[in-house]
Amino acid sequence: MNTALVAGTAVDTRHWIGGRRVASADTFEDLSPIDGRPIARIARGGPEEADAAVAAAKAAFPAWAATPPADRARLLRAIADGVEKRLEELAIVETTDNGALIRSHRRGVMPRVAHNFRFFADYLEHELGHPDFETRGHRNHVTWDPAGVCALISPWNAPLMLATWKVAPALAAGNTVVLKPSEWSPLSASLLADIAADAGLPDGVLNVVQGIGEEAGAALVAHPDVRRISFTGSVPTAKVIARAAAANLTPLSLELGGKSPFVVFADADLDLAVANAVEQYDNAGQVCLSGTRLYVEESIRDEFVRRFLERAGQLKQGDPRDEATDIGPSIHPDHVSRVDGFVQRAKQAGAKVLLGGGPNTDLGGLYYRPTLFTDVDPHSEIATEEVFGPVLVLHTFRDEDEVVAAANDSAFGLAAMLFTGDPERAGRVAARLVAGTVWTNCFFVRDLRAPFGGARQSGIGREGGTWSFDFYCEVKNTVFAPAGWRS
Fold this sequence. Notes:
The protein is of the alpha/beta class. It has 2 domains: about 5-255, Aldehyde Dehydrogenase, Chain A, domain 1 (3-Layer(aba) Sandwich); about 260-440, Aldehyde Dehydrogenase, Chain A, domain 2 (3-Layer(aba) Sandwich), CATH 3.40.309.10. Helices cover about 40% and strands about 20% of the residues. It has 15 helices and 24 strands. The strands form 7 sheets. Strands 16-17-18-15-14-20-21 form a 7-stranded mixed sheet, with helices on both faces. The protein has a 6-stranded mixed sheet with strand order 11-10-9-12-13-23, with helices on both faces. The longest helix has 26 residues, at about 100-125. GO terms for molecular function: oxidoreductase activity, acting on the aldehyde or oxo group of donors, NAD or NADP as acceptor. Pfam families: Aldedh. It comes from Amycolatopsis tolypomycina. Belongs to the aldehyde dehydrogenase family.
């Protein structure tokens, strides 16, 4: 069978290479986190499929790179139209495949997928570039030339949205693409290929290779004809990719993990801070930028905890297809075991559980209870390693210097959240925090014009606006002499 029927939508389970569907000799099983049941058998690609996809992308590159920006932008907008027409199908398929809330997919995630294509189409046409400038009478002219074939490896926690953060700017820049989605949530990438084909995207410009990271992904990132690699995922996997890319000096963009600080001063709007702290359980804690290290000023610690537990206790955990559900399942049995391993080791080390602390057995093995620890050694595993589940740790502090030092005492630097009623303190503390993004008295306000990425082990490079084009292009400066032209 080459097609899976998922919540009433037919999804082709083969690769999309050079404008046609391609099967593999082997397949792998795709499970739904909702109930742990198989929903599809997916083509299991490897070096052969990776080679074919790169070859198709390389063959399509000259014509696509030469396509005028206005025409590329028109096709990207047509893809956005296609996403909007199939929004409900995309939402329910992705909820079934990765367990995230249907209400989030309908109201935020899938509209954002369409926006990703429209934004980079608009940016290509209207924002990219700056006026020429002179040097001793010579004119400097900066251009963004397409780099070539791009290998894009996307994660499972927001599959289509995070994939299109990469696909849209890469295509807008004039590159051709091979997308390798996560084997834990591969279905929406296949639907994207259908949408792009229906929009009129030329054959070979977008290719989708399904498979296991160690097989299809490894072949892609080591391929000598790949000119850009963009990866979102874990630090250990990023190190493997970087070693493979080094052999070909292939430029990398890496958006990796986080253990972000969430800082609450005594002068903060406490209800606002608590509401945003509880929001860190969003998507069952499977969000790289979540503020999982709560730092609360000592004088308000008890009141913060009281309000937090009250609000967190109102969260409804259950089937993500129910609009009333607040927290759905974790992605995969292996991931639940990993999360629970962190929690059980923390308990054994003496950390105190204020909330949760294990799976929600009433719902089955894939649903993990929102968990809050206190009395945690700040250098312990639970306080320093990315759990990527609904697990927060609570610390207290007495002054700015103490909390800044604690917040920055991390291998990561993806994001930070800061709550205070003092605007001067907000600016002062934000400036001292090591993070790619600092949200002050808010959370997850994201504009594609702004850079997104992390410091330290949270990644290399930035995505968004000009930063995306800087990565996906060879930025060139042409210098024209002031005289000497022949008529």
